[in-house]
What we know:
Elements: E1 14-24, E2 28-37, E3 42-51, E4 59-68, E5 71-79, E6 84-88, E7 91-93, H1 100-112, E8 114-115, E9 121-127, E10 137-143, E11 147-148, E12 159-165, H2 167-175, H3 182-194, H4 196-200
Parallel strand pairs: 4-10
Antiparallel strand pairs: 1-2, 2-3, 4-5, 4-7, 5-6, 5-12, 8-11, 9-10
Amino acid sequence: MTTPTDRPNAPPSVTLRSRREAGANSKWNVYLDHIIDEGGAEVEDYLVIAPKNPAPGLITGVCVIPVFEGKIGLLRFYRHPINEEVWEAPRGFIDKGETPEVSALRELGEEAGLDCHKDDLIYLGTYTPEASTLAARGALFAACKCFQTEHPAHDEAGLGDIHFLPPEQVLKMSHQSEIEDASTLIAIHRLAARLPDIFNA
Length: 201
């Protein structure tokens, strides 16, 4: 798997003058940065949220699209910040010492009660969830030929049931904004480009 550990760096156009910590939890540090660019534009409280344990390439989380018996698995998940239930693929943080692949398989089991063989886990690249604020990237995967495990999905605040939907319905839902989660949307469309037969069966 190729990850963005060696990206070409342009000369910095923004200078960090100072940084103060505004908060933290078990996963993230929240900073207010005083920055100024080459043209003199200045922000004294630029919000930056950075992972406590960044992996190479700033990979902090994963999203994995499960394919089970020819259908796409999506979760119903209540998300507290927007006070709504949304459609999402299994996803979550990379634990310390994990590779993205191991994390993807773990999240697949924990949130969906599914597994797949390592050879059926397809890497779909990375994405930046919100580059203006988050110092983080996510790794995207598809888990093809999934099978159910003996262990049910773990209890997690807001986690609902998994629904197995025809791939063409999932694409339609993505175009009609029924699916809004960025990582799920990007993974669905990269999978459709990589393995179109799944969506044309």
